[in-house]
Design goal:
alpha/beta; 51% helix; four-stranded parallel sheet; Rossmann fold; 2 domains; 8 strands
Length: 390
């Protein structure tokens, strides 16, 4: 860490266990043991996939991601155009090299061209037993909610037909409570970063988020609760010179966040589908709305992706988060050819500028660690933010 940063070496055993899950994925012992015991595992491609439905069917949902770092993608590029995002190519390269052969099903959504083509190729070339794609509206209107609710009903019926048994409301309710508890605990973790010198860094938080996609929620919630207790009892403190928010495309490499924090920034908030947008809103149980409709409303109405229209809801949430966490500036990391996020970046930049939040736009490949030219640009941006505070 740069001068001006104070940190304690206090160990967090629960964090080390979560890191081990990440280091092993997708060849994780927990997943192998589940398969050996006859369990089923489904991979999902987008946060608009209703995980509670999969979980209620007795199946473990895990997120399909690519390599943990930027790597050669010649095999993936042989199937997807080079102007497809490197996230899609990275995921498919892992698939054709057998790294996702343990999956019993793949669930996708019509959310962007890259992920949609990835799903089509997966269905054509891989031997995964179950496939389903949900049509995801781009709006929040009542008509859009009814459309998506119908899609979730079809998904549930397709899954029940494949399993040869129904998914009960009691199982769905148990899954909703489990996932809502996970969202509550993740919110508690994020709230620890509101203070001047948080006890947990942005890089560590992303490591927690990565593990949340890769293991049973029952175990994850227990470990996260233990981690929260360890953090609160520790004397750790991180007080870098400027507070930063990261927005943009899918991000799973914690070294990218760590590279920002090593040169004087402290990442205290994000707008990422691997971060806040994953846990942002709970399923609301009001006693009147049918359970599956409540689930579908949560997923379509959650903290929006850049694909959603109009963009005001997403912009307003980003601005509110930036104020809540007292960020000095915003770093936008957009994967090359990630059309939704590249398209609305100029408008978001204008809105943030009006709020006194400068933006640094980085054009990256999936898995980048933030070295070289990116690191230099980040450092210059942080120095500019620091000068503004004087």
């Amino acid at each position: 860490m740069r001068e001006g940063t104070q940190t304690s070496k206090t160990r967090l055993p629960a964090l080390e266990r979560l890191r081990e899950i990440n280091r092993a994925f997708p060849d994780a012992e927990q997943l192998r043991e589940l398969k050996r015991s006859g369990g089923r595992i489904f991979g999902w491609l987008c946060t608009y996939t209703p995980e509670e439905v999969i979980h209620a069917a007795g199946i473990l949902p895990v997120r399909i991601v690519g390599y943990p770092q930027e790597t050669d993608l010649d095999d993936g590029t042989a199937y997807l155009y080079v102007n497809s995002c490197s996230f899609s190519r990275s995921c498919f390269q892992l698939a054709i090299r057998g790294q996702y052969d343990f999956l019993d099903g793949v669930v996708g959504g019509s959310t962007c061209d890259g992920v949609r083509r990835l799903f089509d190729l997966w269905r054509h070339y891989m031997d995964t037993p179950f496939y389903h794609v949900l049509n995801i509206p781009r709006k929040y209107t009542e008509k859009a909610h009814r459309l998506y609710y119908d899609e979730v009903l079809k998904f549930k019926a397709h899954l029940e037909d494949w399993l040869g048994q129904g998914i009960s409301d009691d199982s769905l309710l148990d899954s909703v409570h489990l996932y809502n508890e996970s969202r509550r605990l993740l919110r508690e973790l994020y709230d620890l970063r509101r203070v001047d010198a948080p006890a947990v860094t942005g890089a560590e938080t992303l490591e927690v988020m990565n593990a949340s996609f890769r293991m049973p929620k029952e175990t994850f919630n227990q470990w996260l609760q233990e981690l929260l207790s360890e953090i609160k009892l520790s004397v750790r403190a991180h007080a870098n010179r400027v507070r930063v928010m990261v927005v943009g495309s899918v991000l799973t490499n914690a070294d990218f966040i760590r590279s920002i924090e090593e040169v004087g920034g402290l990442v205290v908030a994000d707008e990422l589908c691997t971060g806040t947008r994953y846990w942002g809103d709970p399923v609301v149980l009001d006693g009147k709305t049918p359970l599956l409709e409540a689930i579908s409303r949560r997923y379509l109405g959650n903290f929006p992706c850049a694909r959603m229209y109009p963009s005001d809801e997403r912009f307003n949430r980003i601005i509110q988060t930036a104020h809540d966490f007292r960020v000095d500036g915003v770093i936008s990391q957009n994967i090359r050819y990630c059309v939704p996020y590249c398209h609305d970046l100029p408008l978001l930049t204008q809105r943030l500028k009006a709020e006194g939040k400068p933006t640094l736009a980085l054009d990256v490949e999936y898995g980048t660690a933030g070295s070289g030219q990116i690191r230099t640009r980040v450092q210059a941006f942080l120095e500019m933010l620091e000068a503004r505070k004087r």
